[in-house]
Amino acid sequence: MANEGVDKCEETEHMIEKDAPKERGGALGDTKEIRAVLLSAFGGLNKLRVAKKAMPEPLEGEVKIRVKACGLNFIDLMVRQGNIDNPPKTPLVPGFECSGIVEGLGDNAKGFEIGDRVMAFVNYSAWGEVVCTPMEFVYKIPDDMGFAEAAAFPMNFVTAYMMLFEVANLREGMSVLLHSAGGGVGQAVAQLCSTIPNVTVFGTASSFKHEAIKDSITHLIDRNADYVQDVRRISPDGVDIVLDCLCGENTGKGLGLLKPLGTYILYGSSNMVTGETKSFFSFAKSWWQVEKVNPIKLYEENKVIAGFSLLNLLFKQGRGAQVKAVVDKLISLYNQKKIRPLVDSLWALEEVKEAMQRIHDRGNIGKLILDVEKTPTPLMANDSTETSEAGEEEEDHEGDNGNKERMPFIQ
Fold first, then answer.
1. What is the DSSP letter of 293?
2. Strand residues in 235-337 grouped as ranges (E)
């Protein structure tokens, strides 16, 4: 069976290499190849490997980028499992954001020159040595921002900014409840809240992260504790904004904690990811726990419920110009030294399984980055992450387990 799986994976690699020139407008017979992370089928970590694929070439209006670093996000775990709406066909190259150097320009691609340092959103295929993406999703990097920071910047900070300021209208003196406060989005939210006077941030996180993030969160709460009771003890009236990336039973709790005119925003559903592969039991359990929203009750209590998906906003709803305006504001805040991406660790492309395991274990503080030029750490060859992910029935998947001590591979 193992040999059969290897044969199938090699076959899919051949298919993606064969088809890629046609898809990207490359010339038939072009032998140029790049390394990329290939997801051969939806499922566990064993569906990921580094493979060769044809060099992509820019279509009209696209920018070709020689990638230096790629961002890893929790949504990438859900994509790997096929745990998303309308998943694309496999084999595919995952990844939605990267940074690098402009290497080529398609016809009518304006505003960039060969050699520009850029960061970009990509509709899949970011985890490779070269990517092509429409120019509206590409942004120049500030002079003093490194490639790792740039790869950690777009997804987390744009998501945090748009939720806080364009959906919830954060203002002076407000309060925010934030789950997964030690993650990339969580730390971006905390930094942006600090730019507004007298904003109180309640953050839930595993206890081993508290020391590292205590200066960025007003009130830290152990994720395994009764955070509703802890918030009520400090703020009996509740909070003005709830940012929920967990879903499930937390939806009802979040709505219950909202003050009048408060805003609850659902932007993720990480509670659905409990094991290495997609669990229909976990999926159903999570959604059944979501309290049904009664419009009359919202009306009577003066509460707002909203959802936010940056990827849908960019790639399905055509709001690239709006996102570009937000990126410009964020770069200004970066240049003023008011915000800065927090990088947890750097990983080689060949270490993508270990990096994904670290996200699954909620062991990261800040953003995990795939460094395209990094040499794999020898220890990785003996790592058993293909079978080490939590069981599908496990509920305390962010608990203080031994995996949290996995050393970050920063060079």
1. P
2. 239-244, 258-266, 304-307
Sheet holding 219-222, edge to edge: 219-222, 200-205, 175-178, 239-244, 258-266, 304-307
Residues 206, 400 contacting (CB under 8 angstroms): yes
Q: Which of 27, 54, 73 is nearest to 352 (CA)?
A: 73
pLDDT in tens, 130-162: 999 999 999 999 999 999 999 999 999 999 999
What are 222's strand-pairing partners?
A: 205
Contact residues for 37 (Cβ-Cβ < 8 A; gap 6+): 48, 49, 50, 51, 93, 94, 95, 127, 128, 349, 352, 370
Q: Exposed (0-12), middle (13-18) or buried (19+): which is 61, by Cβ within 10 Å?
A: middle
pLDDT tens digits, 19-68: 443 445 444 444 599 999 999 999 999 999 999 999 999 999 999 999 99
For residue 337, give every residue at least 6 positions away whose Cβ sits within 8 Å of its Cβ, in sequence order, or none: none
The reported pLDDT for the residue numbered 61 is 97
Alpha-carbon span 234 to 324, nearest angstrom = 38
DSSP 254: H
pTM over 0.85: no
Torsion, Cα 155 156 161 163, to 10 degrees, reads 90
In degrees rounded to 5, what are phi and psi of residue 68? Answer: -105, -35
Residue appearing with tokens 């490997």: 49
Count Cβ neighbours within 10 Å for each residue of 81-95 and write b for 16 or more, e otherwise: bbbbeeeeebbbbbb
Q: In this predicted model, what pLDDT tens digit does every residue of 212-259 receive, in sequence order?
A: 999 999 999 998 899 999 999 999 999 999 999 887 778 889 999 999
Let me know: does 177 contact 254? Beta carbons within 8 Å: yes
